[in-house]
Amino acid sequence: MRRVCLTLPTNRACPETIAAIGGEAAYAAAHFDVEVHLLILDSSDADTFAAHTRAVHALGEVPHVITHHLGEAAQRAFLRRVIDRAEVAKPELMLELMLPAGLSYGACTNRAFLIAAALGCESVHRRDSDSRYQLADGEPVYPVHHELTSLGKRAADAAHGAVETALDQRHAHKRVAMVASSFVGELSVDIGEIRDLDPEAYYDVVSLWAPGHWSDEQKRDLVDDSFRGAGTEAFTGDRATLTLVDPMRVDMCNISFHGVHERVPLPPATDTIGSDYFLIHLVHDAALPGVLHNRNIVNFYTAERRTDAGFVAYQTRFVKFFLSMLYFNHVYERMAAAGEALLDDGGQVRGAVISALARQSATLDRAENVHRLDRVDAAYRRLGGRYARFADLLATRRERLLDEARGDIEDFALLTEAWEPLVRASKDTGPLLSAGRPT
């Protein structure tokens, strides 16, 4: 019986999501020969954590499902043991990159990767706290169905049954590294108001995540395809395709990885969006097989984003995303050019190549990012209201944000260099991790 990790990182109240993901864990254990480790990484406040604890206990006992509900203190203790055992350089910085004070979509998932390794899980299946499952005939449509059907198998063995194949035969010997889908409902980035207020301002802003040398037509196509997921299409029946998965077709709220997450981490940047999408690009560019399915998850917005403080925090993350793309576009273009040269003789990603590309990108001229900030400033002042007020705030933070963007890619390079020792140390540390509570 193989072990798998179904994980839910959260920093907000989500007892309903815990109940729902508990149902997915039970489904997985009932329909597949797996032991499911349901891992809830909880960075919420004490009252919310207590409510989540009650939600975990309400899941009841389910054979072959073990739940781990870990607050930040338990996560930090685990990380300290792992970092000490790995004997990596700059241990205090490494702890900060793994468990930063600020919000980091990449870091919370990296913690799940290491804890999954400690638990002996061969795959990680991630969900988000601001999403829910679609229903078909009154029953939840669980993505784990497709994930456990194909993930980790040789592509040749995964190409059967309901799975269509659009994969070149030369990749048939490789293992399926990713099974994923997308979302329906709200845009994945909360910028619909900009589109409604001024479509041209929306284009001016969203196009900023494209490489600077792209044509206007390429940028327009990117904008039209960005942040929409699968639109509003309701689930009516299963479709799954074995292929080299287009990164634009999947989302991190609905994803699973095998193998690749033990070779390269996600960028640990704080207070930004998009940092957790790196492995999706890596799987594609390294020509690792994946399965794209249509059990899309429903995305929704939380009330916090609609407050004044939430608006400023979210817009700051949005701008930092644009600034990060100076560096990531450089890395992505070189990963795409390298292709299968990113893999070693065993078909595994070579982390040293990725860290070298990240370090190389950190030397880029920042002029393109200065231009990005100028474009955001102009568009937001044209929008007026709270966007203009945010532009005033942004003007006081320009140099700091430019420095942070470069520092973030340098941190990613450092963490990538340490990643394989950290994974090995996690596996060695495994018996010291609390066994969790069977549910």
Structure description:
The protein has one domain (2-429). It is of the alpha/beta class and 439 residues long. The mean pLDDT is 93. The radius of gyration is 21 Å and the shape is globular. The protein has helices at residues 15-31, 46-57, 72-86, 91-98, 105-118, 144-150, 155-158, 192-197, 199-206, 216-225, 278-285, 308-338, 351-361, 367-383, 385-395, 398-429; strands at 2-10, 34-42, 65-71, 123-127, 131-133, 135-136, 139-140, 163-165, 178-180, 183-185, 240-243, 254-258, 290-293, 297-299, 437-438. The chain is built from 16 helices and 15 strands. The strands form three sheets. A ten-stranded mixed β-sheet has the order 8-11-13-9-12-4-1-2-3-15, sandwiched between helices. A three-stranded mixed β-sheet has the order 5-14-10, with no helix packed on it. Strands 6-7 form a two-stranded antiparallel ribbon. This is Glycosyltransferase family 2 protein. Pfam families: DUF6271. It comes from Streptomyces alboniger.
